[in-house]
Write a structure and sequence with these properties.
The protein is α/β, with parallel strands linked by helices. Helix content is 45%, strand content 14%.
Length: 275
């Protein structure tokens, strides 16, 4: 733990002295825009059919990768209705393949019914279900070992932001992932400020870019320059059709993880934000 704290502190000090110079230069290196829709605990067969129909009939930007995070009970149903090019994600998975873990699902089960992604570490899992950084990282590595791609979520609370601890918190969460994840090729990081999730409040494009640039530099310093240049970092937190285009212009924002708006027709406009 002392090593981790020292790593967080050193990274934060370096960043404030050398803010985001190298990382902005590396942004236009071919990272494919990635938009995830996290339906959370919402939907029924009728509403899911309507959303899938909208996504099937709308012209979606071919340069944007789209992933839908569907409630587990409807994953197979959604897979049969979604366009083939749209990825499907579980919203959670446990850290082992099978066993006596009532109510849990495994990455192997997700793969078996057609999912190719999983969302892990969402703030609701951390805050409501008390998942630790370490558990989330263990779950992420197991999902990767099982062949799933991972949307790895991080983000600070309002209290942490107001205390000036944003960079410290996201670096701590990234440190936990980095202690377990060996290959980042199938990982997308989603930065979601907790205070902006479902509140209607959104980090300004400049606020979001500042944290994304910090994360890009953190990756360069603590993982590798190659991972920093290639890893996609999504922004999440009350993303809508009204603010998506401005957010998408920022050099270190590589996509979105969208909550409530992914249940609405405007999700198509968010997917097409870079057109």
């Amino acid at each position: 733990m002392k090593v981790r704290r020292r790593l967080v502190q050193q990274t934060s000090r370096w960043f404030y002295a050398n803010f985001s110079t190298d990382c902005n230069e590396s942004n236009m290196s071919g990272r494919k825009f990635c938009v995830g829709g996290n339906w959370k605990m919402n939907g029924d067969q009728k509403s899911i059919a309507d959303i899938c129909k909208t996504l099937s009939s709308a012209p979606l930007d071919p340069n944007t990768e789209v992933v839908i995070g569907c409630p587990a009970i409807y994953l197979m149903y959604a897979r049969n209705l979604l366009p083939c090019e749209v990825g499907l994600a579980g919203q959670n998975a446990y850290k082992v393949e099978k066993g006596a873990f009532t109510g849990e699902i495994s990455p192997a089960m997700l793969k078996d019914i057609g999912a190719d992604w999983v969302i892990l570490g969402h703030s609701e899992r951390r805050a409501i279900f008390k998942e630790s950084d370490e558990l989330i990282a263990e779950k992420a590595q197991h999902a990767l070992d099982q062949g799933l791609k991972v949307i790895a979520c991080i983000g600070e609370t309002l209290e942490e932001r107001e205390a000036g601890k944003t960079n410290e918190v996201v670096a701590r969460q990234m440190c936990a992932y980095a202690q377990k994840i060996k290959d980042w090729q199938n990982v997308v990081v989603a930065y979601e400020p907790v205070w902006a999730i479902g509140t209607g409040k959104t980090a300004t494009p400049d606020q979001a870019q500042e944290v994304h640039a910090f994360l890009r530099q953190w990756l360069s310093d603590n993982i590798s320059k190659d991972v920093s240049a290639s890893l996609r970092i999504q922004y999440g937190g009350s993303v809508t059709a009204a603010n998506a285009k401005e957010l998408a212009k920022k050099p270190d924002i590589d996509g979105f993880l969208v909550g409530g708006a992914s249940l609405k027709p405007e999700f198509v406009e968010i997917i097409n934000a870079r057109q």
